[in-house]
Amino acid sequence: MAKLDSKIPHGSLSEKWTNHKSNINLVSPANKRLIDVIVVGTGLAGASASATLAELGYNVKTFCFQDSPRRAHSIAAQGGINAAKNYQGDGDSTYRLFYDTIKGGDYRSRESNVYRLAEVSTNIIDQCVAQGVPFARDYGGLLDNRSFGGVLVSRTFYAKGQTGQQLLLGAYSAMNRQIGRGKIKMYNRHEMMDLVLVDGKARGIISRNLVNGKIERHSAHAVVIASGGYGNVFFLSTNAMGSNVSASWKIHKRGAHFANPCFTQIHPTCIPVSGEHQSKLTLMSESLRNDGRIWVPKKLEDVKAIRSGQLKATDIEEEDRDYYLERRYPAFGNLVPRDVASRAAKERCDAGFGVNKTGEAVYLDFAAAVSRYGKEQAHVKGLDENDTNLVKKLGQEVVRAKYGNLFQMYEKIVDQDPYEMPMMIYPAVHYTMGGVWVDYNLMTSIPGCYAIGEANFSDHGANRLGASALMQGLADGYFVLPYTIGDYLSDDIRTGPISTDSPEFEAAEKEVKDQLKGFINNNGKHSVDYYHKKLGKIMWDKCGMSRNEKGLKTAISDIKALREDFYKNVNVPGDLDEFNEQLAKAGRVADFLELGELFAKDALERTESCGGHFREESQTSEGEAMRDDKNFTFVSAWEYKGEPSNAKLHKEELKYEEIEVKTRSYK
Amino acid sequence: MNLKLKIWRQANAEAKGEIVTYNISDVSPDMSFLEMMDMHNEQLIETGEDPVAFDHDCREGICGMCSMFINGEAHGPDRLVTTCQLHMRKFKDGDTITIEPFRADAFPVIKDLAVDRSAFDRIQQAGGFVSVNTSGNTQDANAIPIDKHDADKAFDAATCIGCGACVASCKNASAMLFVSAKVSQYSLLPQGKVEATDRVLNMVNQMDEEGFGNCTNTGACEVECPKGISLENIARMNREYMSASLKG
Question: N or C end of chain B: smaller count of CB under 10 Å?
Fold first, then answer.
């Protein structure tokens, strides 16, 4: 178990990070110039880490598969970013943010990492404002906040529904400054194909230039993986089309443990699937639950009439509507955490109350908010508060100012006006809490290989709270990794440049080339997407919002069979040495076909329900998730042993010293 | 729906390209434009032909990667959307759709519909930032109140997704809307004012070096911009440039 040393510093929780920073080894500015660091991925974590490492003086090489670092999928995050600033004076504090995150994660995250996250959260906002990130402000010129699920304070900073975009462009601008100075060398349209280990340490990567197909060797003294999550193992998710697990999976195969793969977030408010042609799903920000009320009809005959088009949502009388979240969870109402809201939607739809043709949709209704805001505006302006049309118009203006871009996006996709008719929503795969296992320093079980942002597992436990992904990505990249990595690199000040002319690079490059040649020469009968869709269906049906032993066992054997068929029968057109999207995709899907199996295995072993992982065998009489703290208060860290089904389980026991582990209740 | 697609095919940057005509059937009006292209590619793969290369990633209209010129318009006939958000319900059965890459000297074709927009990155690297290092002790975020109207205008400018529709739509292939959006964002905020002079000079200089054309105020960029970036930003940049030139 020596390999699973989480390296949590001693001392009281609130002093661990400060003490650790004061005690770790540093690299002098002169020596930093002699050290190279590779960063894979340019989302919030990768971009912020690249910029900060370069500012500190390291030579950074950064890789992204898109045509520019600004395209990384952090750009699509909508709602906001949490920070314990307590600008609203509503009793927020570092401790409260820490507590909410641990509780929201259903007591399956590491206390010390989460406390550090809450501690640096306030620095993030200061840093971003200093960079010129245009957060929303009130008329006094100060920063505005909104509230998100699972918390009772307003600590979320936002920039309309484009917070991720603005934060990423901030980090991208910091990167650009360093690219201009020559401290970051940027490799756009490059995909990491493998990690290279020399004497047991991460010393470089093999990459493929996606424009001309050239396989390249890049060396460094440390490698940072910031390649995001693996939600696309489900085929349909809110991830970008190119989002993939490959960088994380390659390092897993080289010795990095993979933690809690089954912890996946199914986000409650996404636009429902419209047909077989669907290529991806679109999220509607959780911030909408500040003002939207979720409901389905109480009567099955109303559901039938809606589905057949005889009735519209607005025809259903108030007393015939079931606001099921407000009914079941009066304390948090529509702002329960995501896992709870998703399961509640599934419960109603499984019971036959889904409101679209496929029976997989519920309403998100803004009528009450429109009327409330409208009356407020009428009052402020001294107009008639009882004039329904006027109130509606004024209220819609307020809603437009708050969520305009989201409403527009909904209208474009669904072809229905959400100002007039309630939105239809359904849960979809959105985020993966699981990921590469890391210690307190964010180093994986491979010396010199780090994982940050969504790619690691450490902060969100079994369920992530809204607006915490942006916080974690930037905390890791701006404020944690750049310091902890120095402790490791302080041993490398005399190493000098790493040669790429070694047998280790040679061997890794050959493996990559052989796999790619294998795909091109396969001449099979099915496209890559054919397999990706089949894998997605197995995952959604058997490893989705609720899981059971039988289904998981079937999933494991089905995925294995599908993987074998993939290698025999996949058809990848084109050549090796050209812009070939199908070839790039084939490599990604090959890795998903392995990860999927480990995912199901992890879900099978964890017989408790916790957070986003709901095992049907473990629920209360009211159908709420039931944790098994006695047997499962640990992180599952899987060691690669050839086939995913042979992976070896290591357990990192979770100790809660500051927080009393309780049943999570939002009632 | 049944459609006729006329698509620009070009093997690589050096090759000579041409329009190739395809027929596609059973297109659902609920499909997005890119889902229609996916379906078309699946059919090409089945028949052993090379699928059409095109850039795309988030498919939510925010990453700025998709870049098709559809029936003579950047991102197609709909307003305020990117190609990935364009839906087939905007077309009708029997239509012919011409699909070309974003064309400009500064955006060389990589393959088919994918172009190289790294010139945009280089312009940003020339000055599209505030020179502040990461540290745990920048001043408190609320230390400088910012007029809400200015903050909102800065935000509107900052929503540019860097797709290049403005360049593709401009008869001069000018990048003024793109560059002015970044210059405006920073010039409206106190954090960006400090180095405003160097920023505008450096960015405009880089824009010229990349081979983008001049602005002749036709306003086509604003019409085709999927994010509604306003021409006001160009006016603001011209003012900034003027005053910077006088200072310099």
Answer: C
Q: Do B61 and A409 touch (CB under 8 A)?
A: yes
Task: Judge if A417 and A507 occupy the same domain.
Answer: no
Picking from A160, A280, A529, the nearest residue to B155 by CB comes out as: A160
Query: What secondary structure, in 3-state letters, does A117-164 show?
Result: HHHHHHHHHHHHHHHCCCCCECCCCCECEECCCCCCCCCEECCCCCHH
Q: Is residue A76 in some structural domain?
A: no
Average pLDDT over residues B62-69: 97
Domain extent, residue B137, equals: 117-247
Calpha distance A239→A257 (Å, rounded) = 23
Query: The tokens of A618 are what?
Result: 């473990």
On chain A, the residues whose CB falls within 8 A of the CB of B87 are 412-413, 415
Tell me if A354 is assigned to some domain: yes
Number of domains present in the structure of chain A: 2
Contact A77, A243 (CB under 8 A): no
Single residue among B87, B111, B135 that ends a domain in this structure: B111
Per-residue pLDDT tens digits for A246-301: 999 999 999 999 999 999 999 999 999 988 899 999 999 888 998 999 999 999 99
User: How many other C-beta atoms lie within 10 A of the C-beta of residue A376?
Assistant: 15
Residues pairing with A424 in the sheet: A363
| Global ipTM | 0.98
- Mean pLDDT score of chain A: 96
- The C-alpha angle with vertex A153 and arms to A151 and A156, in degrees rounded to 5, equals 85
Measured in angstroms, the CA of B215 and the nearest CA of chain A are apart by 25
Closest CB to B58 among A75, A85, A573: A75
Task: State yes or no: pLDDT of A1 exceeds 80.
Answer: no
Cα–Cα dist A462/A265, whole Å: 8
Beta strands in B77-202 (DSSP E): 96-101, 109-111, 114-115
Q: Which residues contact B235 (CB under 8 A, 6 or more apart)?
A: none
Q: Looking at A271-361, which runs of residues are DSSP E strands?
A: 293-297, 321-322
Q: Which of residues 100-129 of B touch A (CB under 8 A)?
A: 110-111, 114, 116-118, 120-121, 124-126, 128-129
Question: pLDDT tens digits, residue range A593-640?
Answer: 999 999 999 999 999 999 999 999 999 998 899 999 999 999 999 999
Considering the entire predicted model, what is its pTM? 0.97
Identify the three-state secondary structure at position A463.
Answer: coil
Residues facing residue A204 across a β-bridge: A196, A219
Helix axes A581-605, A549-569, angle to 10 degrees: 160
Proportion of chain A in helix, strand, coil states, percent, rounded to 5: 45, 15, 40
- pLDDT value at position A664? 85
Do the chains contact at A123 and B61, CB–CB below 8 Å? no
Residue predicted with more confidence, A506 or A285:
A506
Last residue of a domain, one of A405, A428, A451: A428
Probe site for chain A from B58, B153, B163 (most A CB atoms < 10 A): B58
> Is residue A659's pLDDT more than 60?
yes
183-222 of B, contacting A, C-beta below 8 A: 185-186, 189, 191-192
Taking the CA of residue B12 as centre, how many other CA atoms within 13 Å lie in the half-sphere pointing to its CB?
11
What does DSSP assign to residue A3? G
Judge whether A478 is closer than 8 Å to chain B, CB to CB.
Answer: yes
Residue-wise pLDDT tens digits, A177-195 = 999 999 999 999 999 999 9
Nearest-5° Cα angle at A615, A614 to A619: 90
Longest dimension (CA), chain B: 63
**Per-residue model confidence as pLDDT tens digits over A384-433:** 999 999 999 999 999 998 888 889 989 999 999 999 999 999 999 999 99
Residues A516 and A423 occupy one common structural domain: no
Distance, CA of A652 to CA of A35 (rounded, Å): 32
Residues B91 and B141 in one domain: no
* β-pair type (B3-9, B96-101): parallel
